[in-house]
Design brief:
globular; single chain; 4 helices; Glutaredoxin; alpha/beta; five-stranded mixed beta sheet; 110 residues
Length: 110
């Protein structure tokens, strides 16, 4: 999926590092091409991001494009979602989470 507004597809560590420099709350969705739960979560996160311009959603495919980022963040299960504020991880979850709970995490970490 192509970049759109506050949704950025990460294709390198350099692009990730540049994107997280923002003052916005960053949601980094670490996913894999062959991961079925990832395919469930991804459209939900895109919907949330499109409705909340105050956040930045980074989609990070870890199996083929960004294995070094997966190693840096110690990801051993996907989908793994990290909430970052000024480079600091302020919250996270593994797996699929209902929209209401994701929105609560966003509100708590703005």
């Amino acid at each position: 999926m192509a970049e759109s507004g506050n949704i950025i597809e990460i294709t390198s560590k350099e692009k990730f590092d540049e994107a997280v420099k923002t003052e916005k709350l960053v949601i980094a969705d670490f996913w894999g091409v062959y991961c079925m739960p990832c395919k469930v979560l991804k459209p939900l996160l895109h919907k949330i991001a499109s409705e909340h311009p105050e956040i930045l959603l980074l989609t990070v495919e870890v199996q083929e494009w960004n294995p070094e980022l997966a190693a840096e963040y110690n990801i051993d299960s996907i989908p793994a979602v990290f909430f970052l504020k000024k480079w600091e991880i302020v919250d996270s979850f593994i797996g699929v989470m209902p929209e209401k709970e994701i929105l609560e995490k966003i509100e708590a970490n703005k």
